[in-house]
């Protein structure tokens, strides 16, 4: 018997009202989502953590049922239509692949690429446009996917961290971040790298920053100084404080020449 | 987030009609402020009308009308495109600097000119639905007036609201005497001078602007001026970048060409951010400087006169001295082509 067959067995028993209440107490934010679309990896890890702490001991039957429901019971791109209150059809291109989805009007681009397209490189940091961890490149411009509705992406081209490498060869910015240790925990890194790649395109186009001297000249800043890089990357927060290394990595990609790492206080 | 219907507008007139028909509908342009407020349950629209693909994004010279010789910024133009446009950088560098002083690269790529004008306050009592706030929930009181009000207003506040308006772009627009062009559901266009666009809170702090529901910002016009050589946008904040202003100053000077010393001020514009419920035009300081020499002593006299009217709250008295020094520094930097 296949695994799939086993899952079907568990699926046949629905949660009782009491069990739903128990889970509502444990995970009020996630319950509706779980009931509508099944358990995904995030819920799974959360449940495992709770089970490890003994919280779920009394509800192990329920936990088993939830954990063994297939992740993609109706395919991640096409959840059961009942779960969508205001359905919006959207066709867009993500990392070179045409995608056609039906989303709830409330779905952000970030949740869509993470939960529906399984592209979990883009991170949900603050979910309020203050940290930059969700930065993706839309139609060539860096944007915050947490403040973008998926519904508004009709016909657009989205590039995420997963779309930067060419096959097995990393994007130069990815290489440079590795070389210069441009991260510690790595959570902000996909956003930092997407932001840096698009930021260098802005520099190429002559875009200015608040620290650019003489904004009236037609060309951009004469030199991409540390100060310019810091200002232009200020929308990406790194709580590990890898900033000097991030600046060095960006310098290296911009100049095309090896950059020495200089450790100093900013 | 509460449920809402989403529709993509295909032309401005049908978009405006859709909005006008539903008092709980909102336009969605860049979405950077609206979606955040919807996540926080501060804004609760039941319908979003996506106007981001309507065009209305051109930046072009004005060929006729009262602002002939100036430029027109499309209401749906992106902040990034506006700041970097050659017509803007060369003729209105003050606006370029102000836009670039705000938000982050990602946000400026999303945010539109019209949307920037309609930003709502970042007062934490407005954002936190468990707190009283007359702007969010009229009649509930002001949490900030007797609460933590370090970031709040020192000019023009009322007992009902002490919030400040967050935009940097609008502070430059106030100094540059911009005109906001709006269109209603009947297709009628009208012009609102920037000074009349935003409101002081009074007893209706829930109204940020004088733009009624059912109208669309189609463009922002900038009249021609001679300030491009001597202007500067100074922003003082808690961290070096990506933070709202404690105090900001847009300063622009035009020298009298008939004066031999080249130091006599023919015209001057000063507007402040972070100090009031709207961009605060420092008219008193301006009046004191016209016809005078552009000296540090005169800058100080003008700044002191302007800030004498400030009424600080419990935690923001520092803004009075900060505003005083910021006006002087912004004027000095405007005189020196952006250098301190």
Automatic annotation (TrEMBL), chain B:
InterPro entries: CO_DH_flav_C, CO_DH_flav_C_dom_sf, Diverse_Substr_Oxidored, FAD-bd_PCMH, FAD-bd_PCMH-like_sf, FAD-bd_PCMH_sub1, FAD-bd_PCMH_sub2, Mopterin_DH_FAD-bd. SMART domains: CO_deh_flav_C. It holds the Pfam family CO_deh_flav_C. The keyword Ion transport does not apply. GO terms for molecular function: FAD binding; oxidoreductase activity. Keywords: FAD, Flavoprotein. The keyword Transit peptide does not apply. Residues 1-227 form the FAD-binding PCMH-type domain. PANTHER family: OXIDOREDUCTASE, XANTHINE DEHYDROGENASE SUBUNIT C-RELATED. This is Xanthine dehydrogenase family protein subunit M. It comes from Spirosoma arboris.
């Amino acid at each position: 018997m296949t695994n799939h067959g086993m899952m079907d067995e568990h699926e046949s028993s629905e949660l009782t009202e009491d069990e739903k209440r128990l889970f509502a107490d444990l995970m009020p934010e996630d319950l509706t989502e779980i009931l509508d679309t099944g358990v995904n990896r995030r819920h799974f890890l959360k449940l495992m953590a709770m089970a490890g702490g003994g919280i779920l001991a009394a509800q192990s039957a329920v936990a088993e049922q939830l954990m063994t429901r297939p992740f993609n019971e109706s395919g991640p791109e096409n959840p059961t239509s009942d779960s969508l209150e205001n359905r919006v059809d959207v066709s867009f291109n993500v990392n070179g692949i045409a995608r056609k989805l039906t989303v709830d009007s409330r779905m952000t681009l970030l949740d869509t690429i993470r939960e529906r397209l399984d592209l979990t490189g883009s991170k949900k940091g603050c979910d309020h446009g203050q940290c930059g961890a969700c930065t993706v490149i839309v139609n060539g411009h860096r944007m915050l996917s947490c403040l973008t509705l998926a519904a508004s992406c009709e016909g657009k081209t989205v590039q995420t961290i997963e779309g930067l490498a060419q096959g097995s060869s990393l994007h130069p910015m990815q290489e440079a971040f590795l070389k210069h240790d441009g991260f510690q925990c790595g959570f902000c890194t996909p956003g930092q790298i997407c932001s840096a790649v698009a930021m260098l395109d802005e520099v190429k186009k002559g875009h200015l920053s608040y620290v650019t001297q003489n904004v009236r000249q037609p060309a951009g800043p004469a030199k991409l100084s540390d100060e310019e890089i810091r200002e232009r990357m200020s929308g990406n927060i790194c709580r590990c404080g890898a900033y000097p290394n991030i600046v060095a990595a960006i310098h290296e990609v911009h100049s095309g020449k090896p950059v020495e790492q200089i450790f100093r206080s900013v | 987030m509460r449920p809402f219907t989403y529709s993509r507008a295909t032309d401005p007139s049908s978009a405006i009609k859709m909005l006008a028909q539903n008092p709980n509908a909102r336009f969605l342009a860049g979405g950077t402020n609206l979606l955040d407020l919807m996540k926080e349950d501060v804004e609760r629209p039941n319908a979003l009308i996506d106007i981001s693909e309507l065009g209305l994004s051109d930046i072009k010279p004005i060929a006729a009308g009262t602002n002939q010789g100036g430029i027109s910024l499309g209401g749906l133009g992106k902040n990034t495109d506006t700041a970097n446009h050659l017509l803007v950088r060369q003729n209105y560098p003050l606006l370029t600097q102000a836009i670039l002083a705000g938000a982050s690269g990602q946000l400026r790529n999303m945010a539109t000119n019209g949307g920037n004008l309609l930003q709502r306050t970042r007062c934490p009592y407005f954002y936190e639905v468990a707190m009283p706030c007359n702007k969010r929930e009229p009649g509930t009181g002001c949490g900030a007036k007797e609460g933590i009000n370090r970031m709040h207003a020192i000019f023009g506040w009322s007992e009902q609201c002490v919030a400040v308006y967050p935009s940097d772009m609008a502070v430059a627009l106030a100094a540059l005497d911009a005109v906001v062009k709006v269109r209603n559901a009947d297709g009628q266009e009208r012009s609102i001078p920037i000074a009349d666009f935003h409101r002081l809170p009074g007893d209706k702090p829930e109204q940020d602007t004088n733009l009624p529901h059912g109208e669309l910002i189609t463009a922002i016009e900038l009249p021609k001026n001679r300030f491009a050589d001597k202007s500067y946008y100074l922003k003082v904040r808690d961290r070096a970048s990506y933070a709202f202003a404690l105090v900001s100053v847009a300063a622009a000077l035009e020298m009298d060409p008939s004066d031999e010393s080249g130091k006599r001020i023919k015209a001057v514009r000063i507007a402040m951010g972070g100090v009031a419920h709207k961009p605060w035009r420092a008219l008193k300081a301006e009046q004191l400087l016209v016809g005078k020499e552009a000296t540090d002593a005169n800058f100080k006299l003008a700044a002191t006169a302007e800030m004498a009217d400030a009424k600080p709250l419990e935690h923001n008295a520092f803004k009075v001295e900060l505003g005083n020094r910021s006006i002087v520094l912004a004027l000095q930097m405007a005189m020196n082509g952006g250098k301190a």
